[in-house]
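[Q] Does anyone have a clean structure-token version of this?
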Amino acid sequence: MNRGKFILALLSVIPLAALAKIKPNLFMRPDKGFKINAGEGRIHGHIKLKGVNANILDVKISGSDTDGHLAIFEQTSLSQGKGTPLHIHHLQDEIFYVLEGEYYFQMGDENFSLTKGDSIFLPRKVAHAWTQVSETGKMTVTMQPAGKLEDFFVTMAALDHEPTKEEINKMFADNDMQVVGPPLKIGE
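[A] Here you go.
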């Protein structure tokens, strides 16, 4: 090999070695833990939803905090008799833990009433919906992996109007979810 080709070959390897040291993801996990105070949202403040209900959502742990592995939200429920349409998360498992109030859930063909202290695990790819039974309520929602639910909530809150059914279906689809039926009615 002549000297010129050797130098060219050497120079072509140097950028590859530098790239190998760069992390493949855009988000870096924090170097230390953090505290989120009661009644506060970590990144977006209070997210005031429009559309499927008018509840308030606080991001407690963002997917950007965990390299997309986990997200935790706290929902303050202000929409008695309202909830989500029957839908599927294609890529995430979802866990609800009721802190206050009463909710009615559908998971597949089964229905469940949940009150303070109850939890429900909703596996990915299983149709589910929930409706708020009590006048007010509060629950934590855990997504694993985080997925795009945070983006969905931010998009829903940014609307300047009540979304149409078609807009809701598109927002669900844009965030890796699929609406497969109407909202759950209490006692169905």
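[Q] Thanks! Anything notable?
[A] The longest strand covers residues 93-100.
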